[in-house]
Amino acid sequence: MADTDNVKRYLPWLVATALFMEQLDATIVNTAVPSIAASLNVTPLSLKSVVTSYILSLAVGIPVSGWMADRFGTRRVFATAISIFTLASVLCGLSLNAPMMVAARLLQGIGGAMMMPVGRLSIIRTFPKNELLKAMNFVILPALIGPLLGPTVGGLIVHWTSWRVIFFVNVPVGLLALYLVLRHMPDYRGAEPRPLDIIGLILFGSGTAILSWLLEVFGEHTLDGVTMGLMLVLSVSLLAAYGWHATREQFPLLRLTLFKIRTFRISVLGGFITRLGVGGLPFLLPLLYQLGLKLPAWQSGLLMMPTAAAAMGMKLVASKMLARFGYRQILIVNTVCIGITIALFSLVGPSTPWYAIAGIGLLQGFFNSLQFSSMNTLAYADVEQKDSSMASTMASSFQQLSMSFGLAWGSLVTGWFLGRVPQTDQVVVTQALHHAFLALAAVTVVSALMFWRLRPDDGSSISGGSTPKAAAAVAQDPTPLSQA
Length: 484
Prior knowledge:
By secondary structure, this protein is mainly alpha-helical. It has 22 helices and no strands. α11 runs antiparallel to α18. The longest helix has 39 residues.
């Protein structure tokens, strides 16, 4: 009993520490992109691969993490994940050129892909359902604090020291997390581990990687049309082959038959399109502030704080709003509001008052937080408890892919409008970024059409907590909390 009490006492702190490290790292880099580009003698837009590669490796690695935990045990996998993540952070700080940085970020993403799903799995298996939501509410706080501190801390570090220090910040946090793992991490294994779908992993991973890379090089106009067309056909063919393979495999990497559930399909696919618009903001906003407005990195970080602060505030009222208005009304109206706030960034210029920019950031934070909470919880409204783990894996994978494609799409549009003009031209860069914001806004507004297909009572079992099955599905899968 004492051991169980100790695990319950320290496990949330352990998972929270790892989540804080991952979320801080995911946001702290964005503010430093212009400084890293200058140091490595590349253009800022070309460094989008540093951000995209990390998210892409998360998306490819997440489906494997559950299998690894069942096969090798949660303690070993979690300790390995933290070690890889921390080592990769050091390698990022020591990078001498952009390819080295991308390789290190890919390795870092592999560590992150194993780290958080296994941490959430340990929480689920340790706490009974009546204690699970309280534990996850504690664990999720670092996910909100990380984005709040990331841009500011990154800006201050770049302003006073070197951008390389940004990556070394993870070392003490990683060592602390590793110490807690060895002392307090439970070692859970699957009773009947399923075989790894190697063919599915190869098809799905290579297809998504090629597609993301194709979007990246297309934005830089480095390939001829024929080569790009062939690569696109190859990528689509690999993903289609995985779709065919998944319908015939007993234990597929991602069970696509879950898309037959209407609310799950609308939530995941609608969220995918929405994140294509929202996903480019963390990369493009620092460029607007530092290249367009000529602000130092630390001021750029401060301008991004209102968004994270508003997201934390929205968590206090999101559930009440969903209970009052329902998922359909919230998602349709809120998606349009997100598109409008993205479009407002196209009006930001050197003469725009700082409080106006902060106001747009506040609105963006409110609407984004409500959107992600709504989309992520709706996905489990009609999913049976036995399928909630696979539903979580699929939703998380598609979410990471959409964010990766969103970054590529945002920089692609910016590069398209920028053309061959040097990225040191403040006026032209600002205009290109303004056009990119309008394009992202249009994509976001279009995604509202997906949510139009919802019924007024869809998700009422979760927003109102009226049925045991819905409560069990949410309790079994904490992804809505950890990903919002």
